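hi!! sorry for the late reply, been swamped w classes. u asked for the two structures so here they r. pasted raw, havent cleaned anything up. first the sequence of the first protein and right below it the tokens
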Amino acid sequence: MATTTIPGAKQPFPRTDWSLVQDAADPAGPAFRDSMDQLATIYWRPIFGYLCRRWGKTVDEAKDLTQTFFLSLVQKGFRLHCSGDRGRFRSYVIASLDNLVRLDHRNATTLKRGRGALHFPLQHEEASVLPSAESPEKMFQIEWAGAVLQQSLRDLERECLGDEKEVAFRAFFIREIHPPGGIRPSYQALAERLGVSVDDVRNYLHRIRNRFRELVWNRVRQTVGSDEDAEAELRDLFKAVRP
């Protein structure tokens, strides 16, 4: 199997080549359900927000159209009209949403929630859209980036707990993700808090930062057509969440 290496990472990992998108396009495949769940977890809120901001949909209308979008992915005979050589799934989603709304305006019909075999993460059903000076496209990118990072952080936490690296994860979380009072503690302060040496903290953070970037890159790589697109997507992601 071909592999892709990440700068700073010690181990290669399998090339994915749009695998998440391809699996979600095959209702008969063994990975279909898991792939659809992952796509829904990452894209539900950005799609919902985009429909409200870009097209002025009410909360209920946006919920219905968001559900319609995902249900359309599993209609009989449906296949994603996109492939690994056509760029990024994120761009496909926005174009599809615009087409979906225009079609909905023409037909005045939608697939209703509950019609179909799948239901998507209910925690997103309570999503609301806060006012923003950013464009709908920019907010879609910000919310997409946040969802990818959140899922990657959960991957990292599960991995660290499974390998008994809880202290390393705590060091990373406290300094990089949720520093007390919004101020990152020094290595010395972090070492005292965790009961380890400063060198331990430095080594923990070096390894965990690399692994976190690897996990983010791996998730991004599943929805783009090339390594070059993945690197560009990764740059967009971190740019979107940078203060």
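now the second protein. again sequence first, tokens right under
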Amino acid sequence: MNALVLDTNALISFVTDRDLVQQAKIGVVIEKASRAEASLLCPQNVLTEFVYVMTRVYGIESKRIATMIVDFMDLPGVEVVDKLDYSKLFALWPSRIPEYGDAAIAAVCLARKGSAVVTFDRKLRASLRGARVPLAAME
């Protein structure tokens, strides 16, 4: 089973109604993970960014965000990745991927053979293409 590496904006699209098309697309991915039909890797920095955005942009109470994260992490196909291959990360950042958090996501993807990044972020998609990091077909 190939793994999909989750970007923050995909997770935010799942839990908000900001873009219903994106929400439906990522919903399919997360539903597959919930049935253990897909492996979904979530870099730890994605959770940090998720908490920040949900708190600062959406004004969601921390307790509710914690419940969302725990429920997400409890899905059978979800694996939170705390360990980074720093040689891969620094081979990408800042020269090929300008954002550190994005380079961390790419490093997680490159460390897991056969994986691809799930993101709706056009800027990140362009950086990943330029760095030859596999992308999941989402758009």
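hope this helps!! also noticed smth abt the second:
Strands lie at 3-6, 39-43, 78-81, 116-118.
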